[in-house]
Amino acid sequence: MREKTLADIQLGQKATFTKTITEADIILYAGLTGDFNPIHVDAEYARTTRFGQRIAHGLLVAGLVQPALSEITTPGGVSLHYEFNLKAPVRIGDTITAEAEVIHIRQDKPIVTLATRCTNQRGEVVIEGKALIYMVSEIDRQA
Q1: Collapsing DSSP states into helix, strand and coil, what is residue 109?
Q2: pLDDT at 33 over 90
Q3: Domain span at residue 100?
Q4: Distance (Å, rounded) from C-alpha 28 to C-alpha 39?
Q5: How many independent structural domains does the chain possess?
Q6: Residue 17: enclosing H or E segment and its boundaries?
Q7: Predicted TM-score (pTM) of this structure
Q8: CATH code of 11's domain
Q9: Please, are residues 76 and 94 in contact by the beta-carbon 8 Å criterion?
């Protein structure tokens, strides 16, 4: 498999990934991470909150951008930095579309900056952020 290099990446290039959040996703994520906050796993408790029902873990939803990032930058790129803002809750049954868009390609180092965004089936932005990807294949080729 050929690794991607900066030459394979274009400003404005986009990729998306879509997934419907299930109860199983939330339970599996809680088990994997140890985050058993009742807002995520306890339906009775969640009904008493302003959300009225359980919501997905923010990091679970943020992780949905990874397939979009990978479509653009891998193999050949590794993650350097992520940042994001949680804008709205995600509920069981919400269909989330994660998008990554190349917004900057550094000329001095093989680093790509991508804007990231997750929207629900109503078009509401639930997460916005950015990611920096280091194209290790560029350095490996020079070594």
Answers
A1: coil
A2: yes
A3: 6-20+56-142
A4: 15
A5: 1
A6: strand 14-20
A7: 0.92
A8: 3.10.129.10
A9: no
